[in-house]
Structures are given as C-alpha cells and as structure tokens.
Amino acid sequence: MSRMLKKAWRPLVALAAAAVAVVGTATNTQAQPSGFTPEHYNQIQFGMTVEQALAAGGGPQSCWATESSLECFAKDPLNGPHASFEFTRAGQLSRKWHEGIFEVKTPSITLAQYDKVAVGMTEEQLWLAVSKDSCVLKGEAYPFYPSKQRYEREYMCAAEPGPHAPRAWFWFTNGALTDKHKSILT
After folding, report:
1. Tell me: the pLDDT tens digits for 60-116?
2. Which residues contact 20 (CB under 8 A, 6 or more apart)?
3. Which residue stretches, if any, does this entry annotate as coiled coil (predicted)?
4. Which CATH number fits domain 104-186: 3.40.50.2000, 3.40.50.300, 3.10.450.730, 3.40.50.150?
5. Which residues contact 44 (CB under 8 A, 6 or more apart)?
C-alpha cells in the first residue's frame, strides 16, 4: 500500500475508533433494569399484552420488552434473579418463567423422595412424595393461549440453600407428570 493511501486511511480509522468509543460509553452509562419483585411477577397474568405486563412488572426500570417477550430483573441483568414472559402472535401472555424470583421455603428434597416420583403422577401425588415447601413453581404456560386445553407447569425442588445446591425438576402437562430430572441429588 502506498504512503499516500496509508495516510488517507488514518483519519477514517481515527473517526471509526472515536465513534466506537462514543457508542461504548453511551451503552455503558445507560441504566440497567432492576427492581423486579415477586409481587410484580404475580401481577403479570395470562392474556395480558406486552404493554400491560411491562406496566405490571415495574416498567422500563425493571424490564426489557420486545414485541413477543418481556425480560425482567431483580438486580443485575447478567447475574441476578430474573423472569421471562412470552407472548402469542396475537400479543397475549402465554408463558411465564423465573429464576430466583421466588425462593424455596425449606430446601429438603432427597434422592429417596425423588425416586418415589414417577411419570404419570398428578401434582397431588408429587406432594405426597416430596415436601411442597422444598419446591417452587418455576414456570407455567398455556402454549395455545387463549385456549386452555393444554397447561404446563415446572417445579424446581432443592435439597439445601444456595444457587448450586442439589436439585430436582418436575414437568407437568395438564396435571400429569411428563418428565423429571435431578442434579447432584443424594
């Protein structure tokens, strides 16, 4: 490359670097959503629009919204408790799920309790085998909303406190257990 061509590119490279620095600074100074609470989660109901759910979730201070989803954060969006909401093509809430918004009251599930649970059981049968206080409802959905012919629920049960504690998950469709999974449960 000739010297003149190299010199001609220098101002363009400097301008591009300055633009990247300005955009990076603007991005880093924007307020990150936080402040989403269990009360906000409970106020967001099936059938709501994105706008209604955003208002119930605490607004842009707590949530990010798109046409078909809403992401809400209790603290840091990268590491803290958060909730996700999905909407139908018609714009109605059909699925809600959270990570850490609700805590297990009394973590106590054991491998022996987990092994008593079998696919096909009802939720009532699950609670005969596992303490309800060791579990939390993680998510629920009406995948074909507004039809309520199919209803899905996911429970997470913990053996002890902490984000990396031994756990079990149970998935129900229309009240019957369809799948289960465990992680480091003893």
Report:
1. 999 999 999 999 999 877 778 999 999 999 999 999 999 999 999 999 999 999 999
2. none
3. none
4. 3.10.450.730
5. 53, 56, 57, 70, 85, 93, 96
